[in-house]
C-alpha cells in the first residue's frame, strides 16, 4: 500500500512523465515565469497536457487552430508549434492583462506572426472570427469560462469542417460533473456541453478523467462528422428524352 497521498503520487508521476516526454525549453519556462510574475492564476495546462495538445494538432495535420481561453499563452505555444510556417492560430482572451502577457510570451517564442490574440468576451469575439476567417478551423481547443462551454462547442461547430477536432478542457471538475442539481454555473455549462457532444448528429466524442499535477479533472474530445441529412437523389427526378 502506498505511503504517499494520492495527490503526491499524481504529481510525482507527472513530473517523471514530463521530464521524460515533454521537457521544458527556454520559451516555455519563461512563459510560466512571466505568467507567475504577472499574478495570473495557476490554471494553465500541465506540460504533458500541452504536449498532448501539440500531438493532437500534429496528428490532425492542423493548419488552422482556434483556442478559446489564452491565459498567459502557455498552451498557445504548444499548439502554435504544431502548425506549419504558413499556419494560423487565433486565441481569445477575456482579460487584457492576460492577453498582454500572452503576446509577450508568444513573441519570445517566435510565434507572434502565427498566433493572433484577440481580447474581449469570447462570445462577443466569435462572430468576428467567423467574418474574418471564413476558412474552417481544423482544431478548436476550449479552455475558458465553463458556464459557456456549450455555447463554445456550438460556435466550434460553426467554425469547423467535417474531420475537425474539438477539445474541451476541465470537464470533470474534480468529480462534480456528476452533480445534476443545476445550481453551479460551471457544472451546468459543462454538462450541457457534454450532452451536446452526445446528442448532436455532427459530433462523435468521448470524455476522459485525468489525475496529475493539476489535480483531478478531465477533457472531452470530439470529431466533427459530415452532415447526416439525406441528400436529394437528382437521378430520380431526371426526365428521359
UniProtKB/TrEMBL annotation:
InterPro entries reported for this sequence: Cation-dep_OMT (IPR050362), SAM-dependent_MTases_sf (IPR029063), SAM_O-MeTrfase (IPR002935)
One example of a Gene Ontology biological process annotation: methylation
Keywords annotated in UniProt: Methyltransferase, S-adenosyl-L-methionine, Transferase
Domain of life, per lineage: Bacteria
PROSITE patterns (UniProt xref): SAM_OMT_I (PS51682)
CDD domains hit by this protein: AdoMet_MTases (cd02440)
GO molecular-function term, one example from the UniProt record: S-adenosylmethionine-dependent methyltransferase activity
Gene3D superfamilies hit by this protein: Vaccinia Virus protein VP39 (3.40.50.150)
Pfam family, one: Methyltransf_3
Protein name: O-methyltransferase
Amino acid at each position: 500500500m502506498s505511503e504517499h497521498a494520492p495527490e503526491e503520487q499524481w504529481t510525482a508521476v507527472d513530473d517523471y512523465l514530463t521530464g521524460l516526454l515533454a521537457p521544458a525549453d527556454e520559451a516555455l519556462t519563461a512563459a510560466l515565469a512571466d505568467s507567475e510574475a504577472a499574478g495570473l492564476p495557476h490554471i494553465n495546462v500541465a506540460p504533458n497536457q500541452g504536449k498532448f495538445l501539440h500531438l493532437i494538432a500534429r496528428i490532425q495535420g492542423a493548419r488552422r487552430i482556434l483556442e478559446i481561453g489564452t491565459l498567459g499563452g502557455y498552451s498557445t505555444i504548444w499548439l502554435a508549434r504544431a502548425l506549419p510556417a504558413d499556419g494560423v492560430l487565433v486565441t481569445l482572451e477575456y482579460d487584457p492583462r492576460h492577453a498582454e502577457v500572452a503576446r509577450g510570451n508568444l513573441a519570445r517564442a517566435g510565434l507572434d506572426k502565427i498566433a493572433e490574440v484577440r481580447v474581449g468576451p469570447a462570445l462577443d469575439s466569435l462572430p468576428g472570427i467567423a467574418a474574418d476567417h471564413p476558412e474552417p478551423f481544423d482544431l478548436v481547443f476550449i479552455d475558458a469560462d465553463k458556464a459557456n462551454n456549450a455555447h463554445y462547442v456550438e460556435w466550434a461547430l460553426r467554425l469547423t469542417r467535417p474531420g475537425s477536432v474539438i477539445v474541451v478542457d476541465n470537464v470533470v471538475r474534480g468529480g462534480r460533473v456528476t452533480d445534476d442539481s443545476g445550481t453551479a454555473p460551471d457544472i451546468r455549462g459543462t454538462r450541457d456541453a457534454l450532452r451536446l457532444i452526445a446528442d448532436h448528429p455532427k459530433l462523435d466524442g468521448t470524455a476522459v478523467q485525468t489525475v496529475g499535477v493539476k489535480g483531478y479533472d478531465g477533457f472531452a474530445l470530439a470529431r466533427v462528422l459530415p452532415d447526416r441529412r439525406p441528400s436529394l437523389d437528382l437521378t430520380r427526378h431526371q426526365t428521359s428524352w
